[in-house]
Amino acid sequence: MIRIPQVRVVDEEGNQMGVMPTPQALQLAQERGYDLVEVAPMASPPVTRLLDFGQFKYEQARKEKEARRHQRSVEFKEVRLRVKIGKGDFDTKVRRATRFLEDGDRVKVTVQFRGREVSHAYIGRDLLNRFAELVSEYGTVDRPPVLEGRSMSMVLTSTYRPAPPPEKTDAEPKTQKSKEAAPQEPAPPVAQDGPEAPTATSTGG
C-alpha cells in the first residue's frame, strides 16, 4: 500500500504523466486495468508505474535467477612453497597461481619454515614478494606477507580481465597485383600490314 500523498506517475507505455495525488493515481491504474507499483521509492516524490504486478514480479524473479546462473562464486585457493624450493617447482607454483587468478579466484601463497629456517623469515618474505611480481599481470597483493607461527603467507586478489573476442571481419579482398609480381614476358611482335611489295614481272628479251 502506497502511503505517500503524492507520486510521480509513469504509464504502461513508459510515458511521464507528472505528479498527482496518490488516490488519483490509484484510480487511474484501476481504470486502465493495471496495478500502481513503486519503482523508485527513494525519489522525491516517489516514482510509480502502471503495470501488471504479477508479470512484474515474474520478470524480476527470472532476471535474478538468470544472474545467479551466470554468477560464479569466488573460491579461495592456496599455493604452498618451501624456503629451499627449486626454480622448476617455483615456476610451476607460479603457473598454478596464474590459472587460479585467471579464473577470478583469490590465492593464498604460503611459505612453510622447517627447523631454524623460521629465524630467517626475510627469506620467505623475499620469496613471496618475487612471487607477487611474477603474477602481477593477473593479480594484486590483497594482504602483504604476514608471519604466522612457522609459516608466512600473503593473499592475492585477481585483477585479470580477459580480452574481448576479436571482431569478425569480412573476407580479405582478392590480392591485387603488387610490384613484386613476376614480370610478364613481352608478347611477340606482331607484323603490321604495310603496302604490298610489287609483283615481279618478266620482260621479253
Highlighted features:
single chain, 205 residues, alpha/beta, Ubiquitin-like (UB roll), Translation Initiation Factor IF3, 2 domains, four-stranded mixed β-sheet, 8 strands, 29% helix, elongated, disordered C terminus
Question: How would you summarize this macromolecular structure in one to three sentences?
Answer:
The chain is an alpha/beta fold and about 200 residues long. It has helices at about 20-30, 55-70, 85-100, 120-135; strands spanning about 5-10, 15-20, 35-40, 45-50, 75-80, 105-110, 140-150, 150-160.
Question: How are the secondary structure elements laid out?
Answer:
Layout (H helix, E strand, L loop, with lengths): L5 E5 L5 E6 H11 L2 E6 L6 E5 L1 H18 L5 E7 L4 H16 L3 E7 L8 H14 L4 E10 L2 E8 L47
Parallel strand pairs: 1-4, 5-6
Antiparallel strand pairs: 1-2, 3-4, 6-8, 7-8
Look at the structure and name the CATH superfamily of the largest domain.
Translation initiation factor 3 (IF-3), C-terminal domain
Global morphology: elongated
Describe the main β-sheet briefly: 4 strands, mixed
Radius of gyration: 40 Å
Please give a structural write-up.
The protein contains four helices and eight strands. The radius of gyration is 40 Å and the shape is elongated. Strands 2-1-4-3 form a four-stranded mixed sheet. Strands 5-6-8-7 form a four-stranded mixed sheet, covered by helices on one side. It folds into two domains: 6-70, Ubiquitin-like (UB roll); 76-158, Translation Initiation Factor IF3 (2-Layer Sandwich). By secondary structure, the chain is an alpha/beta fold. Mean pLDDT is 80; it is low at 175-179 and 193-205. The longest helix has 18 residues, at 53-70. Helix 3 (87-102) links the parallel strand 5 (76-82) and strand 6 (106-112).
